[in-house]
Amino acid sequence: MDISLGLPTTVPGVDGPRLLDFARRADRAGFAGLGVIDRLVYGNYESLIALAAAAAVTERVRLTSTVLLASYRGSAAILAKQLATIDHLSGGRLVVGLAVGDREDDFAVAGARFAERGRRLDAVVDELRAVWAGDELGPRPSPGGPPLLFGGHSDAAMRRAARCGSGWIAGGSSGTAYRQLIDRARQAWTAEGREGRLRTVSLSYVSLGPDGRERATEYLRRYYSYIGPKARMAASRAITTEDRLHEAVADYADAGCDELVLFPCTADPEQVDLIAKEVLS
After folding, report:
1. What 3-state class would DSSP assign to 199?
2. What is the pLDDT of residue 220?
3. CATH number of the domain that 142 lies in?
4. Can you name the residues that pair with 111 across neighbouring β-strands?
5. C-alpha dihedral, 24 to 26 to 29 to 32, nearest 10°
6. Residue in 100, 86, 257 with CA at minimum distance from that of residue 173
7. Coil, strand, or helix at residue 57?
């Protein structure tokens, strides 16, 4: 199983130098990739710009949107050009994770219709591929365009991954819950008549160090405040000890996960080294 690292683009206190230091350290340490979380109505860095910045200071790690909320973005042609540019600048290292999103305020601010987000995402995917296959809106990305992953736990999301993508990505969950989700995703893949193997990815939050639990609780309860009391549950699932991190990695690998993306709950670049020591050594 590949182990990747999330960039702290949504963590309070992040700044440009720290973000770039995160990316450089992750590249040197041997993580398989770097992921970014997408939000609009929040004090985070914009996902695609953050990936472009990471591309400039890294040489080998994959650069993945985990996930990009494409349904509220106004022009699929512009989005296609932005993604192709990152892929081209990085030497073909981009992986595009997409999902419909579940925050109505993001759509309201963007002037997009929340109720139509599923249909809109399907239309965006068709246009992305059409642009990447042509010559009018270069630069040209990797042949066939960047690989597409689709996120979400709903049946519709899993069918979309099976129909349109090369993989499926789950949000933060336990290894036990992931085992059940992955079975559903694979059933959808088979039902669509797809050949080969579905690539499976999941996210998990990590905060190591002496004040790891406090930092995780403060950050995640704030980040997930829009889901009300469930934010406390989301915060409680964060991995805050080395033993629990080892267990989680083993659980996800045993469940059949191909790539686990560990998202830090702090902007301190030292977190890269703490996590790498436990999962890459």
Report:
1. strand
2. 95
3. 3.20.20.30
4. none
5. -130
6. 257
7. helix
pLDDT recorded at residue 175: 55
Residue type at 6? Answer: G
pLDDT at 137: 83
Please give the pLDDT value at position 177. Answer: 82
Residues whose CB is less than 8 angstroms from the CB of residue 241 and which lie 6 or more positions away in sequence, other chains included: 208, 212
Asked if residues 241 and 212 have their Cβ atoms less than 8 Å apart, the reply is: yes
Residue appearing with tokens 């997408």 = 38
200 and 182 Cβ atoms separated by less than 8 Å: yes
**Which residues 6+ apart lie within 8 Å of 19 measured at CB?**
7, 8, 9, 45, 50, 53, 54, 267
Maximum pairwise Cα distance, the chain? 53
Q: Are 25 and 272 in contact (CB under 8 A)?
A: yes
User: What distance in Å separates the CA atoms of residue 245 and residue 166, rounded to the nearest whole number?
Assistant: 28
Give 121's contacts (C-beta < 8 A, 6+ positions apart). Answer: 70, 71, 98, 99, 100, 160
State residue 144's pLDDT score: 86
Residue 101 has a CB neighbour count (10 Å cut-off) of: 23
Q: Which of 184, 185, 203, 187 is nearest to 252 (CA)?
A: 203
Q: Which residues pair with 199 in a beta bridge?
A: 167
Query: Looking at the DSSP assignment, which residues form a beta bridge with residue 239?
Result: 206
Hey, is 270 helix, strand or coil?
helix
Low-confidence ranges of the chain (pLDDT < 50): none
Range of the domain at 178: 2-279
Strand 2-6 to 94-98 pairing: unpaired
Question: How high is the pLDDT of residue 185?
Answer: 96
Q: Cα–Cα distances in Å, from 119 out to 83, 99, 132, 145? A: 21, 11, 20, 21
- Number of domains into which the chain is organized: 1
Facing residues of 262 across strands? 5, 204
Structure tokens at 121: 């995402």
